[in-house]
Specification:
The protein is 22% helix and 26% strand. By secondary structure, it is α+β, with helices and mostly antiparallel strands.
Length: 348
């Protein structure tokens, strides 16, 4: 059935129808090659913090909603997808099921929190899928209570000097054992780094929230950048035996040694050049309240499709590859941890 409105139509269409040596590397700054274009395009629709303007123009701008205290929060492939979903739920337009079956206008994840999650599940990610066809081959409407499977379960452990997050992934709902895999992320209690190993590469998210460039602008509540470490760079994972959620502290590691000295050092809480890899492949942040966006964003560089020259519809959840899904889950854990810290400050 041909869509008379178009998959790429806006939500409104459907509504109407119905700097020093230790400073971070240059890639963490604004990119003059396209940031000006991004700003001029987006001023027409909504304002975006400067922090996000260094992201790759190719890839996904994932939205993590903040409706957490009701029934969890949802993750969308884009702001447009988020708006479409809200319009589609209220609309009786008969073309909507066919559009949703293409992965457009439906959430990517629903994230469920377990309260008092010490030693148990921290977050559960339910991955949504397009609605099925009925017995006559006609697309059905998306049903968030039916069209999903448990994609990832995260458990948290507390240790001296760091916390660990155990990720259990189940990408294939039809083959939970063969396709499942796990890894552990280690979050330093002082240094702004979060390390994990994925596909034999040492990944790191760096918390830039305290950087002067961020604080002085008053545009984002927090900000992280993702990088892959070079072979010669130290990682917290160098002290991991790959078996459990603990680090072997008897092995010398500049990131783990001298914990009390690091706690007393103001500088230790800020990112340093030596902590970054060669490339930034994702950005996580949440705009300040005065932007009135009401969600966090994860900008993920689509490295694979860019290299292959594939034509990708970034408005469809079907476009997101497994590596990007994993990165979004890790970023969401970091966002949730920031939410917990903010809630504690409000209550104190």
């Amino acid at each position: 059935m041909k869509d008379p409105i178009g998959v790429n139509a806006s939500a409104d269409t459907y509504a109407y129808a119905d700097a020093d040596a230790d400073a971070p590397p240059s890639y963490t700054n604004d990119s003059p090659s396209y940031s000006a274009v991004q700003v001029s395009e987006k001023k027409e629709s909504y304002r975006e913090p400067v922090y996000f303007q260094s992201a790759s123009p190719q890839g996904w701008t994932v939205i993590i909603t903040n409706k957490f205290w009701t029934d969890g929060f949802q993750i969308f492939i884009s702001r447009d997808s988020y708006e479409k979903y809200n319009v589609f739920r209220k609309s009786q337009n008969q073309d909507i099921p066919a559009i949703q079956q293409q992965g457009v206008g439906i959430p990517l994840f629903k994230v469920i929190n377990t309260f008092f999650s010490i030693g148990t599940t921290f977050l559960t990610f339910r991955k949504y899928c397009p609605p099925p066809l009925d017995s006559q081959g006609v697309p059905q409407r998306f049903d968030p209570k039916r069209d999903y499977h448990e994609f990832c379960i995260v458990k948290k452990r507390f240790h001296v000097g760091y916390d660990s997050y155990i990720f259990e992934f189940h990408p294939d709902p039809y083959d939970l054992k063969k396709r499942s895999f796990t890894f552990t992320m280690f979050s330093h209690s002082v240094l702004p780094i979060h390390d994990y190993i994925y596909k034999d590469e040492r990944h790191r998210w760096i918390d830039e929230s305290r950087m002067e460039e961020i604080v002085s602008l008053w545009q984002v509540k927090y900000g992280f950048k993702h990088t892959v470490l070079r072979p010669d760079q130290p990682s917290m994972c160098d002290n991991w035996d790959g078996q459990n959620d603990k680090l072997i502290k008897s092995t010398p590691n500049p990131l783990l040694n001298g914990l009390w000295k690091k706690k007393l050092s103001v500088r230790a809480h800020y990112p340093e050049l030596s902590q970054y890899g060669q490339h930034c492949s994702a950005i996580l942040g949440e705009a300040a309240n005065w932007f009135q966006l009401g969600y966090a964003e994860v900008k993920v560089d689509d490295i694979y499709n860019n290299l292959n020259g594939n034509n990708v519809n970034y408005e469809s959840i079907l476009s997101v590859n497994e590596d990007a899904l994993v990165m979004i889950c890790v970023a969401t854990v970091l966002k949730r941890q920031k939410d917990i810290v903010e809630d504690r400050k409000k209550r104190s």
